[in-house]
Structure formats: C-alpha cells, structure tokens
Protein: Diaminobutyrate--2-oxoglutarate transaminase
Organism: Flexivirga aerilata
Amino acid sequence: MRNTDTTIFETRESQVRSYCREWPAVFDRAQGAHQWTEDGRRYLDFFSGAGALNYGHNHPELKKRLIDYLTGDHVVHSLDTHTVAKRDFLQTFQDLILTPRGLDHVVQFPGPTGTNSVEAALKIARKCTGRQAIVSFTNAFHGMTLGSLAVTGNSMKRAGAGTPLYHSDVAPYDDYFDGETPDFLWLDRTWSDSGSGLELPAAVIVETVQGEGGLKAARAEWLRELESLCRRHGVLLIVDDVQAGCGRTGTFFSFEEAGITPDIICLSKSISGYGLPMALTLLRPELDQWEPGEHNGTFRGHNPAFVTATAALALFWADDRFQQQVASRAEQLHTGLQHIADSHEGAWVRGRGLLAGIAFEDVETAGRVQAAAFERGLLVETSGPSGEVVKVMPPLTVTETELEEGLELLTQACAAVTTPVRESALVG
C-alpha cells in the first residue's frame, strides 16, 4: 500500500480548493477515461478536467508528439514570436476548422486560460464600438477575472471580486421562465429608445450551453433570433465556447447547429487537446484593431500546447468520422440519462451532446448523487446555481462499453440516495 497522506494539502494549500473536497483521494496515473489513485483504486472519469480533456487523459498519439517535441529541444516558451509549432497550428486550424466552416476570423492568443479569452473579447468589443456595456444572461459563467465576473451570474463568484462589477446588463436566458421564454422584444425596444435608460451595448456574450449554470441549452431558433437582434443594432455577438466547444456538443463549435456566425469566439480548455494551458480569441478581421502589444500575456506562446493542438485537430477533425462517433455516444448518454431521470421523482435531463446531466427538483440530491458516484468509482461534478444538476462529461473518445459502465454506476448512485418511481425501472 502506497502513501495516501493528504496532510500537506490540508495544512499548506489554500482553503479555496474545491474539487478535492468532493473527491478525497490522491490521484497518480491517468489514461483515457480512467484515473488511478496512488493506492491503486481505479475511477471512471466523467469530469474530463471540466472539459479540458475532451480526448481523454494522455492520449498516446498526442503524448508521442509532445515527447518528441520536448526531447528535440524545440522552443517551449516564445511569447508572440514566430515559431514552427505556432505556424503548424495556425495552418492546421485554418485548413481543418475555419475554412471548411466559412469562417475568416483571425486568431488571437490572449493568454493560457478561458477567462483570458473572454477578457480579450470584451476589451476588443469595447474598443471597436466605443461603447462600454456588455449584455450577458442569467446563470452565465464566463470566468473569474474582473471583466469576466461582471458578465457572470453566480452571486458567490461575483462576491469574490471584492469590488463593484461595472458595465454589464443581464437578460433572461432561453427558457429562464420555464417554458414561458419571452422573445427579444424588450431588448429590441430599449436599444432603439434613447429614453429607455439602457444604453446600446458593445456586445452580447452567450454560452450555447451553460456549462456551470445548470446545463441549460439554448434552442437553435433562440440563438438565431439573438444574432438577428445584434445585427439590427450593430451590437457584436460573442459566443463563449470555452467549455461547450472543441466537439463537446457534437460539432467542433457549439453554435454550428444554429447556423450563426459570431463576431467573436472564445476557446480554451480542450483546444490544446492534451490538457495543456491554451486559449484563443477568434475575431472577424475588421475587429482586429489592436495596437501591437495593446493586449498581451507572458504565456500566450506555449508551444507544447500548439504541438498537441495541431496533432488533435489532424487526428480527430480531418474528416467527419470522429464527429459521427461523438454523435453515437451522445445518443447513448442521453438515452441512459433519460432512463435514470424517468425512474426518479423530480428529475429531468439537460444539456446537449456529451455535455449533459440530470437536474433534480430537490437541490440537495445532486450533491448526494455525486458523493455516491465517487464511492462507486465514478467522477462527476455538480452544476447550477444551487448545485442541483449532476453534470456528466465523459471524454469524447469514451467507448460504448465505458459509457455503459458509467451510466450503470450513476444509476446505482441515484438509487442509493433517492426513491425510485418504480423499482422495475432500475433493472436492465
């Protein structure tokens, strides 16, 4: 038996730590959809690094490319100087992702995390329009730095800023009123009326699926109406695809199904393909109005991430075979989640693609299910303003057998902490 001591974490690491409180284990190894603790216990990982590990842990082909790059003494840190690794990434991203989708956006490397991408998007939107306000949506989450927090809904996270959060307005997300979703008439009229007291914003920022906000997924027609509203008023449309992008909802960008073209797109998490820090802010060419060095960051040139990102794009997105595989696993996941939800009072399925979960009317239930799943060897997190949703995010590379195993473990966890509608529904 190996050492499993956690004293140093408890005595030296900040109280801000969170996931380790939900999963009190010391992890040591990881491969694909699995992690192992230092004492050898295996866990099925349906958390996927909060969406940063869409291709699983230590994918062998990506790992090989990374090792070859490092052992070849190639450039690791480069700020924004030209490197072979960056050139290869930009060319591959253009050829496999942007051009086939009819997107002519330029690529900005704003820094290594999702909130860096969002901050850059907000700043350039304000610079280009000369306006200050940003419209976001109820239960949105866009990051933990001040600009991103200003367009985030969660009151606990906003309070952590310790200062007023300025220049943001909030609108109801799709289905915020439980089936009585208003159209955009209110925004349309107030933006048109100089006496409304609501200034015309620089941009609207939206998640097509609210990953942290409870897995609510916007309808395609709602997103199209939002794009039309923005176009009529000269307001920029920002899609935050940090968590829902890179194939998580079934297509590379989560907005493809709706047929919209955002002015600005935020990417991070799985864009590196390997869990390495990397973020992009994609801008329509006419919005690329930065002065050289006006927005920068020391770690915007992380070449190992460029290497694994390029390899991931070539391996998974050169044709539609991987997308078809993801669609099959998504159908399997939603069928399994619906079976569980149908078996329990006050439960329903939310989400799209492999970003899905079960919401519970009793807001305490999801946390108990998460704990019961951990006891059984399954890693899932909770989501939503009250943590009322069990969030299931397996790697996109999950096999049919692994997904079946995870759904069975989740079924057992739900049965352990809730009362089923009928016992027979738990069988099979």
